[in-house]
Amino acid sequence: MEIQERAEPLEARVGRPPWLCLLALAASVALMLPLDVVEASLGEAPRLAWCGLLWVAALSLPQSREGSARWSVGLGLGLCVLGLAAHLDRSRGASVEELWYIAWPSLLFAVLLGGAAARARTTDAAARHALLWLAFVPGAPLLSHALGIWGGASLPRWLEFLSELSPLRWLAASAVGEAPMPWLPLGVAVLLFSVAATAQATEGEGSA
Amino acid sequence: MSPLLSVLFALAALPAVDGVLELRLEGPLESVSLDGVRVPTRVIADLAPAESLKVRVPWLPVDAGTEPALRLIQGQGGARVESVQAAPRAAPAALARRPLPRPIQRPARISAVGWWLFIGGLLGVMAARRRPMGAAAIGALFSVVLCALPLTMPARPVVAVLEVGSFGAWWVQVGRGSLEPMPSAELELETRPSGASWEWVVDARDPVARSWVAQAGEATTLVARSSSPSEVSLSEAQNSFQPLEELWRRTAAGEWSWHGSWAEGAPLPPAQEGGLLPTWLRSGASPGAEVWVGRLLEAPAGAQEAWVRVILPGKG
Q1: Range of the domain at B123
Q2: Could you report the per-residue pLDDT of B72-87, keeping only the tens digit for each?
Q3: Per-residue pLDDT of chain B (316 residues; tens, 9 = 90+)
Q4: Does residue B94 sit within a domain?
Q5: Which residues in chain A touch residue B117, judged by CB atoms under 8 angstroms apart?
Q6: Hey, are the CB atoms on A82 and B121 less than 8 Å from each other?
Q7: Chain B residues within 8 angstroms (CB to CB) of chain A
Q8: What is the CA radius of gyration of chain A?
Q9: What is the rounded distance in angstroms from the CA atom of residue B9 to the CA atom of residue B71?
Q10: Is residue B104 part of a domain?
Q11: Is the separation of the CB atoms in A55 and A93 below 8 Å?
Q12: Is residue A10 part of a domain?
């Protein structure tokens, strides 16, 4: 049974998307409702960026070995949400170029980081993946935000650089129109995917 | 794309002041651009050989020392100036001091079709959950369809307000990226941020409809001001203007009241509870002035939303 799970992680028996994706779905829909509280909080910020941030966070979260393997179902739900968010942003006056600049990195982040989490969960590299994810995806930007904005401390250059590597930080910056080209966060996503895919391939060969 | 055909018509006889050119265009000719102007001006004609057309074009020469010229950029036909008419009246300074209109900040809504497609996509993904890559593919498909779904409302509506005061009645139109000013509008539009580049595009392909469109980048706000012949008379006794969807009134004492809709010819309805007045309409009047603000039931051509704002100076 264990061998089967390792060999075909996407075919596990769990028949529903991860609960986290359903939470992300509910939160995303709330962001797109014409509510005064949402308008007051997010203003003109593209909803595509905020929904992308929610879904990349949800899909990339490291999973336990027993967790749901249906990340691609979550990806399908997330794509529907991103499509609806892009439609809403267009009706708010955002240009296609502006949305495309947010959309293609969001898609790559979701596929690479989600795929990495799904592959790593059944391998011995799960802990390594989780640590890398924690450091590069939410850790560095949260730490720099806590120190810089809440603590008022001047940040060391290396910490600023580390936080710029985060795909979540890039999506948050794109929501306020301050995102540079996403090459560094994409590099991190490729790194995490490579770690998980390599471990899966190695263990697949070993078990064969 | 044909090459630059270098047919330059020096128009040395033209006075270098703002005005409206009457051009005679002869085909074959696709488009003409004006040289020596402060605002790039392009005329789209699409004339076949032997076809001819007269078109009015805004003329904003750089300065008196610049020799104006026409530059044919696409086509082998000809163009000549038949006459130059005076530019429309410039807007009074008092008008420019009033706050610019903005679209009402209504939260953008997703169309019903959008919501149904979204729900269909979610159900499709869930139905295909036993084939994970199929689920992702269905999600991608619905995502593309949702992105391509046509918009039911213009993304950036043009707002117009009929400003009435001691200077008379003037329409002020505000749009982002693109604006079709009213016929009597000033030739040189204001931009926000000031100094942003924009161009006049005169579409002469339809001989019946005159089409002057000001075009700029999507982040640029264009402002057109045009004098209006409308007689606006609003008083407690009668609405002698147009039917209004909503009406607010500020007395000389500074108290605001909302009166709901007001039919043409009817006396002022009694004040009601509610009715939040947009901030940009609330400001701009000096203390002691009486203010009438109404939302028009029907917007004029070139705007999707229209208001009237009457500011009567205080007595004494």
Answers
A1: 112-148
A2: 667 778 888 888 888 8
A3: 343 333 444 454 555 578 888 888 888 888 888 888 889 999 988 888 888 888 888 988 887 656 556 766 677 788 888 888 888 888 888 888 787 877 665 556 788 899 999 999 999 998 988 887 888 999 999 999 998 888 766 556 788 999 998 888 999 999 888 899 988 888 889 988 888 899 999 988 887 776 899 999 877 889 999 998 888 888 888 888 889 999 999 888 888 889 999 999 899 999 888 777 776 676 667 778 888 999 998 888 888 889 999 988 765 5
A4: no
A5: 84
A6: no
A7: 105-111, 114-115, 117-118, 121-122, 125-126, 128-130, 132-133, 135-140, 142-147, 149, 151-153, 155-156, 176, 218
A8: 18
A9: 7
A10: no
A11: no
A12: no
* β B244-250/B256-262 pair status: antiparallel
Report yes or no on A3 lying in a domain.
Answer: no
Kindly state whether residues B202 and B303 are assigned to the same domain: yes
CB contact under 8 A, B125 and A73: yes
Q: What are the chain A neighbours of B218 within 8 Å (beta carbons)? A: 93, 95
* B83: its two tokens: 């006459």
B288: left (phi over 0), alpha (psi -120 to 50) or beta: left
Query: Does any domain span residue B93?
Result: no
User: Which chain A residues are Cβ-neighbours of B121 within 8 angstroms?
Assistant: 76, 79-80, 83
Nearest to B108 among A11, A86, A91 (CB): A91
For B136, name the nearest residue in chain A, comparing CA atoms only.
A76
Q: How close, in Å, is residue B284 to chain A by CA atoms? A: 25
Please count the structural domains in chain B: 3
Dihedral (CA of A6, A7, A10, A16) sign: negative
Domain that includes residue A187, residue range: 18-197
Residues B284, B286, B291: CA angle, nearest 5 degrees: 70
- Least Cα separation, residue B44 to chain A (angstroms): 25
